[in-house]
Specification:
The protein is an all-beta fold. It has one domain: Sandwich (Jelly Rolls). Helix content is 0%, strand content 54%. It has no helices and 15 strands. The strands form two sheets. Strands 1, 2, 3, 4, 6, 11, 12, 13 and 15 form a nine-stranded antiparallel β-sheet that branches. It starts with 19 loop residues before the first strand and ends in a 6-residue tail after the last strand.
Length: 204
């Protein structure tokens, strides 16, 4: 039986409950540099990584989150199969955080960065029935549900994987993450929008 057509990610952050804790909507912000590796260009946050095997990140806000839903529409705008893009979260220190990333060919990974070293918690190819827009320039909606020690990751509303994390990753800053592979050329990702919500309706 053929799979249903992939619906496009929403252009705007959703509204309504649960309570919205943070909205990142660059469509309403002027173009300009936001960090050494990030700029707003044409209503999108663009994050760049030039050096080989480099990791670039851009925080959505200087706010620590614990039990939340992190939601974003992201795309790899330039790069190749060796690059990965997505979200980091629960950053407790500069070199201590969790990340959920995908590649343009449809591989996903949940990882922990510990003192700069990357440790995979779960990884593999997305299953055939997972809704996913492959390739450079294709936008996908990534969602992370972080509740206590449990982290569940979704692609376009499809539950991909869940892991149990160590107590050191109980809360922290969230943002966009870009992992550059081994190619000589630089890579670039975009964030169309991002949002952080509480898990329960009556929590804010």
């Amino acid at each position: 039986m053929p799979l249903p057509p992939l619906s496009l990610p929403p252009d705007r952050p959703p509204e309504g409950s649960p309570a919205v804790l943070l909205v990142v909507d660059p469509a309403h912000e002027p173009d300009g540099v936001r960090s050494p590796v990030a700029s707003i260009i044409g209503g999108r946050i663009e994050l760049r990584a030039g050096a080989q095997a480099a990791t670039a990140g851009f925080p959505f806000a200087p706010v620590s989150f614990r039990d939340v839903v992190i939601d974003a529409v992201v795309a790899l705008e330039a790069g190749d199969a060796g690059d990965a893009y997505g979200l980091y979260f629960r950053q407790a220190a500069e070199q201590a955080y969790l990340a959920f990333v995908i590649t343009p060919e449809g591989r996903g990974a949940i990882m922990a960065v510990e003192d700069g070293a990357v440790r995979s918690l779960a990884e593999g190819a997305l299953p055939p029935d997972a809704p996913f827009a492959p390739g450079v320039g294709a936008a996908n909606r990534l969602t992370v549900i972080a509740a206590g020690p449990c982290v569940t990751c979704l692609v376009n509303g499809f539950v991909l994987a869940g892991v149990i994390v160590e107590p050191r990753y109980k809360s922290g800053i969230a943002g966009a993450a870009l992992l550059h592979g081994s190619s000589d050329a630089g890579t670039r990702m975009s964030v169309r929008w991002a949002q952080v919500r509480s898990i329960l309706v009556d929590q804010g």
